Automatic annotation (TrEMBL):
Provenance organism: Glycomyces rhizosphaerae
Gene Ontology terms describing biological process: methylation
GO molecular function annotations of the record: 2-polyprenyl-6-hydroxyphenol methylase activity; 3-demethylubiquinol 3-O-methyltransferase activity
Any Pfam family hit: Methyltransf_23
Gene3D superfamilies: Vaccinia Virus protein VP39
Name of the protein in question: Class I SAM-dependent methyltransferase
Tree of life domain: Bacteria
Alphabetized UniProt keyword annotations: Methyltransferase, Transferase
Amino acid sequence: MDWVEDFYSRTGRWWAEAESGLGDRDRGRVERLHRVCGSEPRRVLELGCGYGTTAAAFADAGHQVVAVELTDRADQAKAHLERLGPERLQIVRGDFYTATFAGRFDTVTYWNGFGIGSDADQRRLLRRIAEEWLEPDGTALVDVYNPLVWASWDGEVELLQANPERGYHHELQQHLTFDPVTATAVDTWWDTAEPERRITQRLRCYTPADLRLLLEGTGLALAGVLVGGEPVDLAADHTGDAAWLRDHYEYLAVLEPTSEGARAQDARRYSEE
Ligand SMILES: C[S@@+](CC[C@H](N)C(=O)[O-])C[C@H]1O[C@@H](n2cnc3c(N)ncnc32)[C@H](O)[C@@H]1O
C-alpha cells in the first residue's frame, strides 16, 4: 500500500479547488444513510473522508461525525470545522489501520475507497469496524467497487482538459486497465506537463458473492445492498441485469455485526476495563 499517500495527496492537489465544496453527491449519501437507518441523529465514523464534504453534510443533517483521512486532503476537510464546531465534526488526520477513537459509533461509513490493499488488509479493516468501532446494533455503509464495470473499462484512455474557471488547472491523462485474475482495477494518471511522473491506484473489486466470502470471520455480515441509491433483492435472479453488468461501478454494502462480532466486542470491552 506504499502508493496510497502519494496518489491521494497528489490527485488531491489537482482536484481540491474544484471538488472540495459540499454538493449533491454528499447530500445523496446522507439520504442513503437515512433510507437504511432512519434520520435520528447518530454518531458516525467516516473512514477516508478526503476533503470532508460528506462528513460536513452529515454534520449539517444533525449527526455527530468523526472523520479520518490519511493525506493532506484533511486540510481541506478542516475548513468545515469553523462553521460546524467540534461537537458536530471532528477531523482526524491519520491512518485508519492504526488510529484509535474514543467511544463507539452507530454508523461507520467508507465512501468510494474500500478495496485498497490485499484481501487480508480489507479483513483487518472490517474486523476493526466490527470489534472496535461499531455499536452492537450499529450499521456500516461501505461502497464496494463492482469488478464487472471496471473490467469493461480495460484499455480505456482519457484526456481531461484543464478548466481553470471551474478550478481544474491541470491537463490530465488517465489509463485504465484491469487484472482479471485478482479482480483489481489498475488506474494510472499523469499530468501531461510531466508525463514521466505517473501515479497508479490499484483497487480490489468484489461482487456481492465475493464480499460475502471476504466478510466470513470478520464479525460483519452483508445485510443488504443499494445500487444507484435503490435497495436490491440479493436473493432474486439477476441474470443479464444491466445495472450490475454495465451501469454502476460501485454499490453500497450495508454491513451489520454478527453474533460472533458482538462476542468479540464484549471480549474487547472487558479487556479495556
Ligand atoms: C477515492 S478517495 C475517496 C474520498 C472520499 N471518501 C470521497 O468519496 O470523496 C479514498 C480516500 O481514502 C483515503 N485513505 C486511503 N487509505 C486510508 C487510510 N489507511 N487511512 C485513512 N484514509 C485513507 C485516501 O487518502 C482518500 O482520500
